[in-house]
Amino acid sequence: MSTVIREQPLLTEEIVVASAKGRGRGRRRRDPMTSGVKVKETRGDRIFVVAAYVLLTVFLLVVLLPLLNIVASSFSSPQAVSSGRVLFWPVEFTLRGYTEALNNPAILRGFGNSIFYTVVGTLISVAGTIAIAYPLSRANLFGRKTLTGGVVFTMLFSGGVIPMYIVVQSLGLLDTRWSMLLPNAIGVWQVIIAMVYFRTSIPDEVYEAAQLDGASELRILWTIVLPLAKPLIAVIALMYAIMQWNSYFDALLYLRDADLQPLQLVLRGILILNDGGGGGDLAAQLERRELADLLKYSTVIIATVPMLIVYPFVAKHFSKGIMVGAVKG
Question: Does residue 109 surpass a pLDDT of 60?
Answer without folding.
Answer: yes
